[in-house]
Specification:
Strand order of the largest sheet: 3-8-7-4-5-6
Number of strands: 11
Strand content: 15-25%
Radius of gyration: 21 Å
Helix content: 25-40%
Number of helices: 9
Structural class: alpha/beta
CATH class of the largest domain: Alpha Beta
CATH architecture of the largest domain: 3-Layer(aba) Sandwich
Largest sheet: 6 strands, mixed
Distance between the termini: 17 Å
Length: 254
């Protein structure tokens, strides 16, 4: 039987609860008898048509759209509908993954459109995009979008326009004011920002902080917090593996 570190009995994952019954978090909870809750610290809101117009971007000046997420698709087609822009059937769509590509069925007749997709990695998608280098690309994104996609498009001298269609905002977490967890799990710098926006006087004390990704880890440290659990690593490619390894090591130290 696994020995659980008494210092970590409860974990708050700052993301939406996984859909369905299968998740590594559910398995970890059962295996180590942990209380694992889920609560998004940030959420997405679409920009208004008025704000989009301020960007002075004409959607129909472009011949191809690059979707790096379902959010980008949702808000691209929302803006088109609100602005009464009819997207021509000749428009090409380049999607980060197959699932994102199939998601477009929500908005367009899939079989009648030119849709391409990568393998969940922008570098893979870029190889496909480069085969259509004469297109004028539109990159719908959020106000805090990663620069990787834009930088790669720039580096390969592709004609593109980066446009903010939605923004990431801090969620209201006031109902958590009197709730304590042994471990908080973060996946973006925006999550750290939300923590302090909601709880300006937050003190880490004995709370363990877990971070996924280098930029999130950097945000944890810049906020004056101690980073206890990091993922991905060579031995822990997932957050659940990193947490399990931390608990195992902590248990041996007793």
């Amino acid at each position: 039987m696994a020995i659980v570190d008494l210092k970590i009995k409860s974990i708050l994952v700052t993301q939406p609860k996984p859909e369905g019954d299968k998740s590594p978090y559910f398995d970890l909870s059962k295996k180590l008898n942990l209380k694992i809750d889920f609560r998004p610290f940030i959420h997405v809101e679409g920009v208004s048509v008025a704000d989009f117009r301020k960007e002075r971007i004409n959607i129909l000046d472009h011949t191809a759209i690059i979707f790096t997420s379902r959010n980008s698709a949702d808000h691209f087609f929302r803006i088109c509908a609100e602005m009464r822009v009819t997207v021509p059937e000749s428009m090409k769509y380049f999607c980060i993954s197959e699932s994102t590509a199939y998601y477009l069925q929500k908005f367009i007749q899939y079989r009648k459109r030119k849709i391409f997709y990568g393998k969940q990695n922008f570098n893979d998608l870029l190889e496909i995009i480069k085969k259509h280098k004469d297109e004028k690309f539109l990159l719908p994104c959020s106000d805090i979008a990663k620069e990787e996609a834009a930088e790669l498009l720039e580096k390969n001298k592709l004609a593109y326009t980066k446009a903010v269609f939605y923004k990431t905002v801090c969620s209201d977490l006031s109902d958590l004011a009197k709730v304590n967890y042994d471990c908080l799990v973060f996946f973006s710098p925006a999550g750290i920002k939300s923590l302090f926006q909601n709880f300006p006087k937050f003190k880490q004390n004995n709370t363990k902080i877990a971070a996924f990704g280098a930029t999130t880890a950097k945000a944890v440290e810049e906020a004056g917090l101690k980073l206890n659990i990091m993922a991905p690593t060579t031995t822990a490619p997932s957050m659940t593996m990193a947490i399990e390894q931390f608990i195992a090591v902590s248990s041996k130290k007793k």
